[in-house]
Amino acid sequence: MANAKVKLGLTLPNRGVVIGATTVEEMLALAERADAAGWDSVWVGDSVFARPRLDALVLLGALAARTRRVRLGPACFSSTPLRNPLMLAYQWFCLDLMSGGRTVFVACKGQPSGSGSFEKEFQLLGVEPKTRMRRMEETIEIMRLTSAREHVDYRGEFTSFRDLTILPRPIQQPIPIWVVANPGNTRNFQDIESAFRRVAKYGDGWMTTWKTPDELAASLARIRTYAREAGRPLGPGFEAAIYYNVNINDDREAGFEETKRFLDSYYAPAKFSREMVERCAAFGPPSECIEKLRRFAEAGATTITIRLCGYDQTTQFRRLTEEILPAFL
After folding, report:
1. For residue 305, pLDDT beyond 70
2. What predicted TM-score, i.e. pTM, was given to this entire model?
3. In this structure, is the dihedral angle defined by the CA atoms of residues 207, 38, 286 and 16, taken in order, positive or negative?
4. Spatial distance between the Cα atoms of 314 and 252, rounded to a whole number of angstroms
5. Residues near 105 by beta carbon (within 8 Å), at least 6 away in sequence
6. Where in the chain are the domains?
């Protein structure tokens, strides 16, 4: 399904304040410039102790104050199962009010293994990793319920309450909630089906990464099928977002080298092979980057969130805004 009007979002590397890739002021300034230049949205990463960074909620609050038009959200909110759902709902509703109704919550179950100290993070925060799926689902249910109504009751496996009203109310009714699902192709069918059925049941949108355009199209078709089976057919407003990386460099090999160095540092101790970088990033001259982004649009992506994989974020942003963004406006 072609989507010529795919929206581009800027993903700020808020882990960059730890690895030396950016500063707080640079990120805020880039968000302001994106707001003025026609970008659709601005996103921030999230984790707590596993991969330390500037806290997503704190940074999004600052972005709400420094921007006027762009949508704001996490790409993705991997600490969803680690945070108290009532406190998170309260904070998110305040953020939606502060931003004038521009937020998109992107629920994620987190990752209990892989790069970063995820096992230790779950242990430190007192959460059993195997409970993370249901905790994420309960958070979505609680946020939807308490954003829409007052004096509500809820009984879940991990959180229960009676006669709760959370104020202030968010401006958006209902608040948009996207669900992350990124099952690898080597996972068993049951795991893949479970992940995509969760999107079909809970999501106003879907965010993913590490997908080729063909894989994106096939996965989106499955999500739509599962949604129809659940009696919740997905309308034209359903978002399919791909989290992607870009490095613009007229020397393609130099673009690859900087992208790899950036990703190796960002996800340390993981190391990215050539194949991994080719899969998750566009690098090289603008024409090549545009072509790779267009393939995702043709596969059905409605939003592409772009993280600038370079240590000169300002120059990368300028080139992307001047040489790539116009192709999608």
Report:
1. yes
2. 0.95
3. negative
4. 19
5. 73, 74, 77, 92, 143, 175, 176, 177, 178
6. 1-69+245-329
